[in-house]
């Protein structure tokens, strides 16, 4: 049996690009308000692509593989999301759209209850408008964190749904840290003896 | 069997929920950080006040359904180690988790309330916690093996 699992980069790239572009596009981005469904969908899509042509002569895919695939997908997606969103935000500003956020910030800066130090910090962040380095870094970090967490969960759900057979590495759950048993279609024998306790 | 991984995941999930619950408190106290704390949850939820539960007369940072999803996930991480039979059943038939999403799908299609949104979300995410836990265990084992091989 071939022990090398297929490369997951292609699936992660496709899932990540879908996640990033869909989350950044105006109007479509609002779908993410439904419990981050586009980000989770990116992870599920990556799993589907990875498992679609999964060879039969290699060890069965595990949920851990799904997690790794989700992390890659989330990293790609977070980057693409930022790369697509920044020029779009700049374009929106040029067209005079989305000015409500800036009105809120201006209100915040005029609030006397806010300490001067905090006001200076806010001013320095927004000094460059939508394209200031501060805002881009904050947006990129937020996108990366959200993408990695939710795409990871999405990819694991994808493995649950699209795996061709039950994963053989249940033993790692029963006794974490032990070497995994060879892949099989059914749970290990000792699984029935209540070893989970 | 509770493991370090399950504890870590449960702690992280509880931290995330606590942050969402802390936002209305910060807003109630009129702290400067409150709008920034709320904005952390903007990419993951619509934050509509009409669809969110309130604390201190201020909306929680995520809607009732999202709060239910997070709480269900945390509850799964806490309870699955105590329910080996259910773990086994779900691991053998993983696609059963789709059944847990039926209440949420029905709730989306019918007239819903704060309670129905919260509890349908809670039920939907409960079994996902098991698979995330298993994935984290397997991922940790793979990393451990990789580190041992490279030394």
Please estimate the helix content of chain B.
Answer: 55-70%
Biggest sheet architecture of chain A: none
Order of helices and strands of chain B: HHEEHHHHH
Largest sheet, strands/sense/barrel of chain B: 2 strands, antiparallel
Describe what you observe in this structure.
The complex is a heterodimer of chains A (197) and B (151). Chain A has a domain at 9-84 and 133-168. Chain A is built from seven helices and no strands. Chain A has helices at residues 9-24, 37-52, 63-94, 100-109, 116-126, 133-162, 171-174. Chain A is elongated, with a radius of gyration of 22 Å. Helices cover 66% and strands 3% of the residues of chain B. Chain B has seven helices and two strands, in the order ααββααααα. In chain B, helix 3 crosses helix 7. The two termini of chain B are 30 Å apart. The model of chain B has no long low-confidence stretch (mean pLDDT 90). The interface between A and B is large, with 49 and 40 residues.
